[in-house]
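Researcher: We're reviewing a set of sequences before deciding which ones to prioritize for further study. For each one, I'd like a predicted 3D structure that I can look through quickly. This is Protein CURVATURE THYLAKOID 1B, chloroplastic. If possible, include the structure in token form so it fits the rest of the review sheet.
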Amino acid sequence: MASTTPTSTPLSLSSSALLNAKAPSSPARLQPTPVAAPSPTPPPTYLSKTNAYCRKIARNVVSMATGEASAEVVATAETPEIIKSIQEAWDKVEDKYAVSSLAVAGGVALWASAGMISAIDRLPLVPGVLEIVGIGYTGWFAYRNWFLNQTGKH
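Model: Here's the predicted structure for Protein CURVATURE THYLAKOID 1B, chloroplastic, in token form for your review sheet.
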């Protein structure tokens, strides 16, 4: 068996390289070229609105904790009369389930009628005929209620 002797390559490291824990630079190695990083995109506008709203809430919470009420809190503390009247009317309703069901059914009926009118409007001759009927009825209504009332022949 042949004995192999390990060959060691001498490393010449300076003390500054050992202290800085950097590998020694060799002149043959290419230096990297700097690359510009892409600029960060601004946050979406809804995030800035949300952040502003959260800051306003935090400001109000701090002012309420200290006992001072800001002008915004005082202005929004009063509910308008229409809200009060709606709340009073809702409190008087005995069968809230039926009223809610009727409101939902009314919304569905409004949506369905809008779809039906849109479908009729797409038909070729119907919109023109309906427009003529509407103009004729408007003329008849105006003649009957305005002209006859002016002359007293009603």
